[in-house]
Amino acid sequence: MSLNAWWPRRADKNQWLQIDVGKVQSIAGVVTQGSSNHGYWVKTYKVSVSKDGKRFEFLQCGQIFDANTAYGNTKVKTMFDLPVEGRYVRIHPETWRGHIAMRAGAIICETKCKKGSLDWSFDGSFESRTGGPSLDPAWGEGSFNQAARYKPFQAMLKTGYKFNQGFGLKVDESRCIKTPKYYSVLMDVLLDKTDDWRAPSPQRSGVAMVSSSTKTSSCALLLWYAAKSPLGLDATTNLVCPGLPRVK
């Protein structure tokens, strides 16, 4: 999902929002939100798709899809009748409340992962660079590229994803990691708020490793921290799976 709402100068049917999914791949649908803190949202829209960014075709004979019914963080997912091959997705608002305001993302079909490995770079996307499942911010939205705003870490963390205490990212790894009984998750971690005893030098980076059985179909990668002193780099990091204890 985009961080800030798209808000074109003109509110008419000639406006469109374009999403680049990085390469030609199977696109299953789109997800939309209204403005986060203003009373505007898109009610209905059409979708067009292109492989080269020049020739676009409207989906499903120009069908009009339903979007949101209020502003805020409620997501509305629209799945196409069949996945379509493309790289560029345009959303064309048809009706809206007050003014055109929209946050949107494309729903990508999961691809086969490479060599049983998943690698997320957080460069504005939850997609893995090695294929396989995308991460899901199931407990609430964060924001990309926040870590790079801290000067001591700009050289180390050019990209990143920031979320609040108690939030996290969920992944279903079962179709990618099948053979090993256990696997590890490694993360470069930057915490901007910790309790006093978890506040080492801000020049360090944190790397967390956890393991969990792959017998469960869905696990959640969670990062928890307290909120007292600034810019610490330690945390209790858990890979939470149903029926399994948390790893500390």
Explain what you see:
The protein folds into 2 domains: 17-108, Galactose-binding domain-like (Jelly Rolls, Sandwich), CATH 2.60.120; 143-240, no CATH class. Residues 199-248 have low confidence and may be disordered. A hairpin with a 6-residue loop joins strand 2 (41-50) and strand 3 (57-58). The protein is built from no helices and 15 strands. Helices cover 0% and strands 40% of the residues. The chain has strands at 17-33, 41-50, 57-58, 65-66, 76-97, 103-108, 143-144, 161-162, 168-171, 182-189, 193-194, 206-213, 219-224, 229-230, 236-240. It has 248 residues and is mainly beta. The strands form 5 sheets. Strands 1, 2, 3, 4, 5 and 6 form a 6-stranded antiparallel β-sheet that branches. A 3-stranded antiparallel β-sheet has the order 9-13-15, with no helix packed on it. Strands 7-8 form a two-stranded antiparallel ribbon.
